[in-house]
Amino acid sequence: MLTIHKSGMQTTVQDFGRTGFQKYGVVGSGAMDPYALRIANLLVGNKENAAALEITLMGPSIHFDEDHVISICGGNLTPQLDGKVVGCWRAIPVTKGQTLTFGKPRSGSRCYVAVAGGIDVPAVMGSRSTYARAELGGYEGRALDSGDQLAIGEASAAQKSAAHNGSWFVPAPSYSPNPVIRITKGRQFELFSEQSRKDFLSETFSVNSQSDRMGYRLDGLRLALAEAQEMISEAVVFGSIQVPADGNPIILMADRQTVGGYPKIAEAITVDLPLISQLKPGDRLRFTEVSVEEAQRLLKLQEHTINCLKNAIRLKRRDMK
Amino acid sequence: MDYSFSPLGDQAIVIEVGTAINEHTQKEILAISSFLEANSPQWMTEFIPAFTTVSIFYNPLHISYGEVKSGLTALLKEASEITPSPPRTIEIPVCYGGDYGPDLEFVAQHNGLSTEEVIAIHTGTSYTVHMIGFAPGFPYLGGMSEKIAAPRRQSPRVSIPERSVGIAGNQTGVYPISTPGGWQLIGRTPTRLFLPEKEIPSLLRAGDTIVFRRITAEEYQTLEEIENADHT
């Protein structure tokens, strides 16, 4: 079990989110940076989609009531165990009575704390992810607060014994405060004015402070349709970039609604979503176009890399037993 | 049947059935949805029907966009041959006005009607569920009379109680969960639209027909107690 002593800015339980219920208006939710969540789980021998804690910018204070093996992946929010800085992207044994806290965000804005055995909250519609707006899933359907106690699933003997010797870790992805995000053209791309299409693919946009798990609002040159027109609402996805009438694009994120009525200029490609999720207000980004075929090739390539990492982690864990 | 396909990012494809909201398009969308429900292709992870489109999600590690597109072309031929089951009709009891519908008076005044007339018009017709979205279980309804149309509130309410029935422009709807919003609230239903504990978590589905029935505050209380007892 673990106990939250201080809540931090926003700490929620997340896994890969809900699939199959969007036709009923149920939001997908899930980890904002699914890559970091996957690796975090692999490092502690969990299933890849086990539930973990998603921590945002100002981290919580987490007290461990038992011995556990944990890992912290994603942005580097300066995690500390009993005040001593610990590394990310590796397995870390913690003992009963220790406390995990966070300091200054050094890179990125979110990290995942996975615990061997997984965070044990009830699955709702096939997922343990928190969707706070509908008070769904996670821990009582909300972000964690001080005093909350979370049960941990049963870890196997192998998971418990594979303690970390400090000598190896998984390389962190190249998170950046000014990334170039690859996009595929949106369904309404051609409806934008020639100037706006050009601006979108060449100008720099910055992340507005009104950005959250639902969407990232961007500031920069305003984008406009060639001719004003009413849109008919249709499905949107994690990564859809829609442009409301005020001309400031919004990138839809994990807690996006299932459908939207604003024109979509683009969709960020799946492999680049973690780069967006790790941006903070004030960070800057640019967009560049790739084909759908290229986006899917990059996803396969990333999957291949993850499979290699998976094998390497498995071998390392076996060595340490 | 002349559908157009376009990618929606690298994990979904949009089938555009028509470019305007009408009965013909809606029937085709229902036919496709029923077909996908009964014969979901192995590569499909989920789908979202909307007013004029059906979006289909897939895992690009197993199948490419091009393969999905050609697979769908064949499937849609089969789909066009099925007749979707007739729409279900669902009745939504509503207690109009008072604390439940603080904007009923405004909607009446705006249209030069009495509150009784607004209620009679709202309950006097049936509505089609075009799609579910915006919030879990929220129905986009077609069929409201323009006689009771009303603009959104100038400043949205920070929190609208769940199950409120409202009007915004030419649309009427029911908020399944508490949310901020600018709709004019004319009443409230004791019926829950979002059912997270159920296998199908939404009372309504695209294609359903719904009718509103007026109830008294006492009936509202009784029905609400029954609903609460049912799910706890």
TrEMBL record, chain B:
Keyword check for ATP-binding: yes
PANTHER family linked to this entry: 5-OXOPROLINASE SUBUNIT B
User: By its UniProt entry, which SMART domains does this protein fall under?
Assistant: AHS1 (SM00796)
Q: Which domain of life is it from?
A: Bacteria
* Source species: Planococcus salinarum
InterPro entries reported for this sequence:
CT_C_D (IPR003833), Cyclophilin-like_dom_sf (IPR029000), PxpB (IPR010016)
Q: Could you confirm whether the keyword Nucleotide-binding appears in this record? A: yes
**What sections of the sequence does the record tag as coiled-coil?**
none
Identify the SUPFAM superfamilies for this entry.
Answer: Cyclophilin-like, PH0987 N-terminal domain-like
One GO MF term on file is: protein kinase inhibitor activity
The protein's name is Kinase inhibitor
Q: Write out the entry's keywords from A to Z.
A: ATP-binding, Hydrolase, Nucleotide-binding, Protein kinase inhibitor
Listed Gene3D superfamilies? 3.30.1360.40, Cyclophilin-like
Pfam families reported in the protein's UniProt record:
CT_C_D
Please report the stretch or stretches of sequence annotated as the Carboxyltransferase domain. 3-204
